[in-house]
Structures are given as structure tokens and as C-alpha cells.
Amino acid sequence: MKKNILEIKNLTKYFGQNKVLHEVNLSIERGKIHGLVGANGSGKSTIMNILFGNSVISETGGYEGEILLDGEPIRIRSTRDAMKYGFGMIHQEFILIPDMTVAENIKLTRENTKKGASRILGHELSYIDKAQDQEDASSVLNELGFSIDCSYLVKNLSTNAKQFVEIARELDKKNLKFLLLDEPTAVLNDEDSRRLMDVLKKLASKGTSILFCSHRLHEICELCDTVTVIRDGNIISEYQKENMSIPALATDMIGYDIHEAVQKPRMIKEESILSFRDFSVQMPGEQLHGIHLDVKKGEILGLTSLSGHGKLAPGYGVLGIYPSSGSILFEGENLDLSDTGKTIEKGIFLLPDDRKNMGLLLDHSIRENIVFSGFYGKHRFSKKLFGPFSVRDKKSMSRYVEEQIRELGIKCENMNQKTRELSGGNQQKVCIARAAAVRPKVLFISEPTRGVDIGAKEKILDALIRMSREQGTTIIVASSELEELKRISDRIAVLCEGKVSRILPPDASEEEFAYAYTGEEERYDQ
């Protein structure tokens, strides 16, 4: 049996005239976990898409080069081809059907059927055994250490829960030989990430080969047997387990040293701009149960919790995306949560964690995305025509967009490029620029650095600090990344089981945060 299960030789890919992969050579050993790291736009997702037969590859001219599986040349033209060869993939952006249940998504195309009906009608025409499907789905989710009602519709789940469903769908495949993972832990906190990594180690020990793509370099160093660094479509370096280090990987990825964005300690006024009173949100997988919380004017408030304990819910509740109860005071007055438009007009804005489905107009240009909310919601970038009439001020629009592209380092061809064509990190920068254009009084932002590389992460965090310092924006950041919250926040509210467990300063000890995550603050105080 050959040592390498997969060999890639001189893999080349063009998108139009743009060459995104340059004669890439890569070998992956059987039953090993191979890491693939690179900045957003480096080409790593393109490699994944080629191996899994994503339609975007065939629709743009296919690929050049050779792929060998078990020493035999194969040609992957479609996802059907990839699955036939035993490939499974967990995508950075979910490939789930929103109006189907958790069980239906996990068992799709592999449904159980009623045995009696199968014997009479054949498998194709038989009745689906929904009870068995739910049992199978629950079983594979339990292997991941994640419990959820498998009759829930996927569209009603939190992003964190959707990621577990996506992972469970692939692990349920019986012929899985090679698993591709594109940023699978980006939406997970450290506890859930560790749970997933334990599952991956077990899979590898049983012979499944894994290509693991992540921006979390500490996970790469802990999990992977080998790691390959790609930059601008070229293989830069390869490290074995014993030689891996975060500084070396970061430098190879970006090509320069990283400057970390850090919020300097400051005095915050006691004046509250936003006050939650017995506030609850019915967000599946992230429910909030009667919190009391005062947000101070001008502060950066971090919100964190273990997955499923409610950190994402406040922003979605305030903007009316999920049903809520209780009351909110904004600048001393009761906020009417029944009219999202008026909430935005008053100066409250949300950047959701699901940027592709909720945060961007993917088929519109970078320019249109950045100015959209500012123009339509706040009447920025307009000039008087005559009387009450006004028109778009295209010059001021272009000036602002060019400034944001430069300051945030948005990697693009030009401002007229479709947002869909950008990498995940650059799409997130577009979201940040759009929020800044609104000049909100209060900005809720969920998982701002999910799925972005280390360089983009620092640009995004630095932009949030600037918004707070220069515009006076009150920012509420919901994140699984505690270390990032500690670097930019004035205070951090820790939630447990949908309630505020503790509010801690960013320099609080790891022990204090650990007790707060689990709701054991009373034990800590003893």
C-alpha cells in the first residue's frame, strides 16, 4: 500500500486572466492530518474546491495539472466525482438547505427507508424512515459532543449549531476516505474546537486522511502532522510536527511581521447608552434568558460565552431578527423593537456573523456594498439637486470607498469588483467599511474575525478601535475569541446558560474567566 494517499502535481488554476495557483505540488500521507495555511486569497480554498469538484472550477475553465489518488490518476469534474472517490468536505460557508431539518440535512441522499416498503417498492420508491434518520443524526452529533433537537429547521439555528450539522453530515458518510476541512473551527469556541479536534484525531487513527485548512495557527500546530504554507498561489514552505511554530507560519503566510491591535486602558464614563432589563431572545441554539446589562457610552464591550450560551443573541434581539421580550432603554428612552428601520435610524446597527447570507449584497460591487447602508439608511453620499430633491454624490462615494480599501487593505481588482469574488477576510473588511459609513451610535458585531487570516484580523480589530476612539461609537463585540476581546475591550461580559455570569476587566485572570464561563462565580468568590 502506497504511503501517500493523495499526490498533486503542477496544479494550476486561472480565473479569467488571473493565475491563482502556480504549479502547486503537494503530497498527503494516508491516515495523517495535513495542514494547509495561507492568507485570505492565497489559493488554499481553490485547492479545496478543485479536490471536491466545486462547480465554480468547471464553470471557469477547469484546472491544469495532475491529481493521483492511491497512485492512480483521477480527474475531478464535479462534486459527484469527488464523493465517488471518497472525498468529503466541510465548507467555510455552509452548504446546508435552510428549510430542511437537521436530520434531513445530515442524511440527505443517504436516507433510511422503511424495510417492508423497500422490499415491495425497491429503495428508490420506498418511504423514508424519519425516526431512524433522526436517531442516526443524533448519534453522529453526540459523537461530536453536541446535542440538539434534530427536528429543528436549519434556518433557525445559530451559526455555531449549523457548523456542527455540516460536520455531522460528512462524518455520517460510510465511504469517507479523505476529509477536506475549510476553516471548520472558525465559528467555534476553544471548547468546541478541541472537541472537534479530538474527533479528527480519532478519524485519522482509523485511516481517514485529512486536509485541514485553518487560520488558527495554534490549532494547526497542535493537530497536524505536516503543514504546508501557500502565499499568492505558490507553495512557500512545509513543516513537520517537530519544526512547526506559530511565528514561522505567520511570517511565511503574510510575508511580513504582524502588528497586533491593542486597546490602551482608558477611563469610561458611567453614563449608559443602552440598558437591557429582563431581556430574553428566542434564538435557537443561542437563547438569552432575562439579562440585566448596562452598556456604557463610548465603550467597547466584549460578549463571550461557551457555544450555545447566548453571546450572539443580544444584537439579533435588538434588531428584531429573533423574537424577544423584556425592555431596552436607549439614551434613556424605551426602544421599540417592533420596527427595525426606526432602530437603525436611531443609530443602532448590526453586523451579523453570517456575512454572506445576512451581511452582504454578494452580486453587487464592493462600492455598492460599502455605501449602501450609509446612503439609504443615513442619507450620506447625497447632494441637493433642487428643492427637496437629492441625488447620489458619486465622487464622495468613490472617495470614501477608496479610502476604506486603502485603510483596511481590501485586496481587490478595483471598487467595481463583485463582492462575491472576494475572499472571506476581504468580505468581512467590506462589512466593517459599510458599518463605519453609517456612523452608528451603537454597533453590534458578531464574530468579526471568523475565518480571516492573521493579517486581516489585525486590520479588522484596529478598525474597531478607531471607530470607538475617533467616532465615539459604542461597540458590542460578540466573539468566541477571548484573547482578541481582551486586546480591544474595556469590559467583557461573560454569559452562561443565557444569563450574564460576570463582567470582568480585560486583564482578569484565566481562572476568573474559566469560572465565569461555567457559572461558578460563587465558588470563585469563596
From TrEMBL:
Top-rank taxon, per record: Bacteria
Nucleotide-binding as UniProt keyword: yes
Pfam families membership: ABC_tran (PF00005)
Domain ABC transporter: 6-522
GO MF annotation list: ATP binding
Keywords of the record: ATP-binding, Nucleotide-binding
Listed name of the protein: Sugar ABC transporter ATP-binding protein
Organism: Sellimonas caecigallum
Lineage, top ranks: Bacteria, Bacillati, Bacillota, Clostridia, Lachnospirales
